[in-house]
Predict the 3D structure of the following.
Amino acid sequence: MAGDWIKMRTDLYRDPKVCVIADELMAADGELAGYVSQMKQRDMTVTRNVTRNATVGSLVTVWGVMRHRGKRVERDLLCRGVTLSIIDDVSDMPGFGAAMSVVGWAVETDDGVVFPNFFDDYNVDPAEKKSLAAAERQRRYRESKKQKEDVTRDVTRDVTVTHREEKRREEEYKDASAPVPLPTRGKKPKATTLPDGFGISERVQRWAEEKGHNRLAQRLEHFTSYAKRSGKQYADWDEAFMAAIREDWAKLSNHPQQGAAPQSVVREWAV
């Protein structure tokens, strides 16, 4: 099963960190030397090469167990509740946890023991590696697709805006080039002959009083007689009559009104 498998480098035996762990284990005042002396009643007599081989075997055991029991945190492996002394129990080698800590392959924290870069350096199985690679390809594909969609959206928006702008300009041009309609004029009143029963209207009466014109009846008689004789046509007969009064067509301004007293008599009465 994948959980029972770990990657192991063929040159791990010669890794400098393995050599350091071996030296830590072989130290005369180390935990392993104290254990051998106490339990076996003798000193350690193994060579450094043997200790290095024992180190590689213990690493395989520790990494395998911790990978199965621990939890992945990004690229690290975290084993909660574990201490360096538990690593000694797993490896059956006193001081092995402390030796791994010296080279940075195990770090004891408040949460447990962390194995830094566990999934980068040496413990990724082929199936997991393939899955990670596939996930990375999917991530890159999604990012690339999103970038293309963003570019397409920007181009489409620019084209739409440009099309709308051109259409608006065309409409403005059509409006500007369209002929301006001329203002409509009202129909000019039609001229007619003298209406039957034409007389002094209220409009003419008020106007005459304001302007001080008198003898309107005589002026009307002269005006209607002249209009009938000459066959005159006017669009506004009141205006024509007022013009006749202003211009004194009847020549009444120099003739006193019948029945009016001579100026001498008026002066006498005034005296």
